[in-house]
Amino acid sequence: MAVESGSSPLIELRNLTKTYLLGDVEVPVLKGISMKIHEGTLLALMGPSGGGKSTLMNILGFLDTLSGGQYLLDGKDVSTLSSNARADLRNERIGFVFQNFNLLARTSALKNVMMPLEYARHAQSAKAQRAWAEHLLERVGLKDRMDHQPSQMSGGQQQRVAIARALVNRPKILFADEPTGNLDSKTSEEVLQMFQELNAKEGLTIVLVTHSPEVGAFAREAYHIKDGLMVDGTY
Ligand code: ADP
Ligand code: MG
């Protein structure tokens, strides 16, 4: 499906670079990435391992900082925010899903989902927060598993808990880094269908990182990154 490209983008990157310092050796990892991410898209960030996908994702999600260029979010330059301001934006605007789920293994699914609420400013009562977390677990098909711990769950169930957790602060954008990397093909498909549904029905903007063309096929548009450069894509 074609994605509206005339409207102003949710995210715009202008010649973004990232260089790591290993000892006193500079390692350029992102070498000038320019791209636009429009609200409501389901975008795949693809390319071979080591190409810089996770580095880019972590910068987009304010888990890491850029070295050069510009990052505009909603038209506002967020390239040089303080770490506190970045943490606030991350909590308020962004949801994250990782390959290894990153759940607390011995804490109930419900408590895992509610955890990010503690770091955000909320007017909601504790009761309303709990009801919202329960609703999200129901939404991902885990109504009967809310009191289970991740250690008692399958990989697919754990990833669904992680998706519910990523949605709990009502993010504008969801970043998923190789979200099906630890799942078998049937479970992968279920998780990817869930992303498609969240995108199509609820208008959630999703950026999916993957090295797998089969996973990329679930997206509306794809960008390819290789050796720190965008090799093609719809820009
Ligand atoms: P991908 O997700 O596409 O597999 P990454 O973004 O994880 O790629 O890594 C891209 C390159 O950056 C790799 O060569 C990796 O070794 C390097 N890299 C990633 N993180 C760091 C870091 N913290 N310090 C130094 N080099 C890093
Ligand atoms: Mg990676």
Report the helical percentage: 25-40%
User: Strand order across the biggest sheet?
Assistant: 6-7-8-3-9-10
Mean pLDDT: 93
How are helices and strands ordered from N to C?
EEEHEEHEHHHEHEHEE
**What are the bound molecules?**
adenosine-5'-diphosphate, magnesium ion
CATH topology value? Rossmann fold
Mind telling me which CATH architecture this is?
3-Layer(aba) Sandwich
Number of domains as seen in the coordinates: 1
The overall strand count is 10
Query: How much of the polypeptide forms β-strand, as a percent range?
Result: 25-35%
At the fourth level of CATH, the homologous superfamily is P-loop containing nucleotide triphosphate hydrolases
- Which parts are unreliable, with pLDDT below 50 for 5 consecutive residues or more? none
Class by helix and strand content?
Answer: alpha/beta
Please count the helical segments.
7
Terminal CA distance reads 15 Å
Q: What would CATH call the class?
A: Alpha Beta
| Main β-sheet description | 6 strands, mixed
Radius of gyration: 18 Å
Describe this structure in words.
The chain is α/β, with parallel strands linked by helices. The protein is built from 7 helices and 10 strands. The strands form 2 sheets. A 6-stranded mixed sheet has the order 6-7-8-3-9-10, sandwiched between helices. A 4-stranded antiparallel sheet has the order 2-1-4-5, with helices on one face. The longest helix has 18 residues.
